[in-house]
Amino acid sequence: MAPGGLFWWIGAGVLIVLELLSGTFYLLMIALGCVAAAVAHIAGAAADVQFAVAAIVALAAVLLLRRSGFGRRIRKEASRNPDVNLDIGQTLSVPTWHERRARVNYRGAEWDVELAPGEPEDAQTYEITELRGSCLVVAARQPTASNTARL
């Protein structure tokens, strides 16, 4: 294999390793372009044709990825994302409300609590839906099927 072909294989390998570290598929699509250029080199294509093949294949692969569901991952805002903030989804009890705000003891500390818009003040249990600084935004917890069966 000539050094020109080795360039494409090394480039594809580096891009695949970087892809494994980043967690997106875009670098993998560009690595596909490098593999296509390496195949073009093996077929005897000139250097300018190899670069054109790499660019066209990588561009087509990226565009196909963008159109697929994998390329359009919608990220939640960190203040509402349970993968970032482990308090999201946890439950707590709020004994009294004052103008849709309260102070409660949660995880061994006093927290400000705010009721989410449209939520009732008479629920027994609330679920944390968002964290704004040191303020927990809560919504009334919907009873599960096992909870309603016991009532």
- Overall strand count: 5
Radius of gyration: 27 Å
Order the strands across the largest sheet as they lie in space.
1-4-5-3-2
Distance between the termini: 75 Å
Helix/strand-derived class? alpha+beta
> How many separate domains?
2
The DSSP helix count reads 4
Q: How helical, in percent, are the residues?
A: 40-55%
The proportion of strand residues reads 15-25%
Structural commentary:
This protein has 151 residues and is α+β, with helices and mostly antiparallel strands. It folds into two domains: 3-67, no CATH class; 78-142, Nucleic acid-binding proteins (OB fold (Dihydrolipoamide Acetyltransferase, E2P), Beta Barrel). Helix content is 42%, strand content 19%. It contains four helices and five strands. It has helices spanning 3-22, 26-42, 47-67, 145-150; strands at 91-92, 101-106, 109-115, 126-132, 135-140. It has a five-stranded mixed β-sheet with strand order 1-4-5-3-2, with no helix packed on it. A hairpin with a 2-residue loop joins strand 4 (126-132) and strand 5. Helix 1 (3-22) runs antiparallel to helix 2 (26-42) and helix 2 packs antiparallel against helix 3. The chain is rod-shaped and about 80 Å long. The N and C termini lie far apart (75 Å). The model is unreliable at 147-151 (pLDDT under 50).
